[in-house]
Design goal:
Helix content: 55-70%
Number of helices: 6
Radius of gyration: 35 Å
Number of domains: 1
Shape: elongated
Distance between the termini: 84 Å
Structural class: mainly alpha
């Protein structure tokens, strides 16, 4: 009986030993490369929608300074008489509409992200100053549009033209200051 028990124990231990042997790999077969550990991207405290709005805000802002320059140049090229240069006046109005549309997009995307990031401490002061400057420029562009000279009021045309020009230049200056602050403070 002892011999039978010893034979059974020997049999079981040899099975375990066989299971632990490593298979031999022929030298002609290359072993698989070791697995590269995957690094997870750093999680963002913001949603994907925030990042999309941030991209829209950033890329739309590239049109700001060229639109300012084109609008100013067109406005300066207009004559000082009512009804002069109809096509240039129409283009000036179209660019002004485009500028207002750009500022609507920028205000919505920037304001929404400003609200979502309101608890973030870094760069809070430059973000707030940028926001106030751009809102001031928005108000100025609405006032600029409202003060546009009209051919229907020829007696006040020259005064309205000067007022329109001065408000536009002030709004462009405020908007440019807000834009440059965002660039130099690296708010994007």
């Amino acid at each position: 009986m002892r011999v039978a028990k010893a034979a059974i124990l020997l049999f079981f231990f040899s099975i375990v030993g066989w299971a632990q042997d490593e298979p031999t790999i022929p030298s002609s077969v290359n072993p698989p490369p070791p697995a590269v550990p995957q690094t997870l991207p750093t999680p963002s405290p913001y949603t994907r929608a925030y990042e999309i709005r941030q991209d829209i805000h950033k890329y739309a802002s590239y049109a700001t300074l060229p639109l300012f320059a084109a609008e100013y140049a067109l406005g300066e090229s207009l004559g000082s008489e009512p009804g002069s240069e109809g096509s240039a006046r129409g283009l000036h109005a179209a660019l002004g509409t485009g500028l207002v549309g750009l500022f609507v997009v920028e205000t919505v995307t920037g304001g929404w992200n400003l609200w979502q990031s309101r608890h973030e401490k870094p760069h809070r002061t430059p973000r707030m100053i940028h926001s106030f400057l751009m809102i001031g420029a928005n108000v100025g562009f609405v006032a600029t549009s409202a003060s546009a000279p009209s051919d229907h009021r020829p007696t006040t045309f020259d005064h309205d033209r000067k007022t329109h020009r001065n408000i536009a230049i002030a709004s462009i200056g405020i908007g440019t200051a807000g834009y440059l602050l965002s660039v130099f403070a690296r708010l994007h």
